[in-house]
Amino acid sequence: MEGRADVLSVRELEIGYETGRGLVRAVRGVSFDLGDDESLAFIGESGSGKTTLGLSLVRLLPQNASIAKGEIAFRAASEEVLDLTTLDDEDLRRFRWEECAMVFQSALNALNPVMRIRDHFADTAKDHSETNGSLKGRALTERATECLEMVQLDPGRVLGSFPHELSGGMRQRVMIALGLLLNPRVLILDEPTTALDVLTQRAIIEVLRTLKVEHRFAMIFVSHDLSLAAELADRVATTYAGRIVELGEVEQIFYHPRHPYTVGLLDAVPTLAGGQQELSSIPGSPPDLIDLPTGCKFHPRCPYATDKCREEDPPLIEVAPAQTAACWHWEKVGSDWEARGGEIHERDANRA
Ligand SMILES: Nc1ncnc2c1ncn2[C@@H]1O[C@H](COP(=O)(O)OP(=O)(O)O)[C@@H](O)[C@H]1O
Ligand code: SF4
Ligand SMILES: [Mg+2]
Predict the structure, then answer these.
(1) For the CA of 260, the nearest atom of ligand 2
(2) Whole-prediction pTM value?
(3) S-S: 296 plus which of 26, 126, 278, 309, CB 3.0-4.6 Å?
(4) Atom number, ligand 1, closest to the C-alpha of residue 54
């Protein structure tokens, strides 16, 4: 995108978890940039390192995790570029929420059951009182009201409620509203719709779309569900075994995928015409991140695998302008996909 200023630049990030069994290589050589009004989705099967990546961007990794290598550069509102891998605790505390907020995967249970929603806003503001000294009393109520309205909740009803008085979808919106309180530039959402029923998922997607289009937040979504990316993302990264295996604009990923894993994820998305019956998952299971396969990590499950794949791990290769894929045989994968395209539409048309 021309003229876009990047708010976040990640380079060659490696994150491991120390465990009794060995080092879990959860994030491997991840690089990407995020434009200041862009939304980027990381999509991959469970265990592909998505949550670990999200946590590293707000530096909230568990004790046994360490960033072995790489850079995370964040351009703050002041235009100062912060290196998140070396920020001290005080600066980190300020950075979280004020520059970058994350809505966690377990958000539905993250609210304190004995605190009214109003007090959750007050607590968050208080933690940041040195830099947001004015955010208390009336100003706080006004800002909380604004944030709740941004997620299409009725502040009059919600502020005085306890979490158990709200539905799952409403609590998820409260978590998003709390994330917005200190006006961060980047919002990270980990599986924002996963635990919700289909209708509530739709409502949350609408909320996020409004935040993106009207309020122009930069967002990072993390999900196992590729269809969420179709609704919300400008660009999509598919992740496998801790690394990005394909990255491109949303249309490129959906209409012209060049990596067999992306194709597998697309085949698992239920089509409108086919409904749930069309769901197929990729055969086999994700690799052990302590003892990774040789060569391309996807080779044990890949229908295109050759000897070269078993021996050499492919780098990300430019397959089209602004689209990269880590596959030795991307041209064949692409031509098969394009050849199949007509068939899929015909099949869907027959079912419709
Ligand atoms: N605290 C932890 N200690 C050890 N391993 C972990 C820990 N958290 C996650 N992992 C492992 O790291 C890998 C990536 O996990 P995660 O980032 O949660 O993936 P995703 O969000 O894509 O499901 C998995 O193999 C998971 O078991
Ligand atoms: S490099 Fe080989 S094994 Fe890996 S995704 Fe491409 S074809 Fe499959
Ligand atoms: Mg996760």
Answers:
(1) 5
(2) 0.92
(3) 309
(4) 17
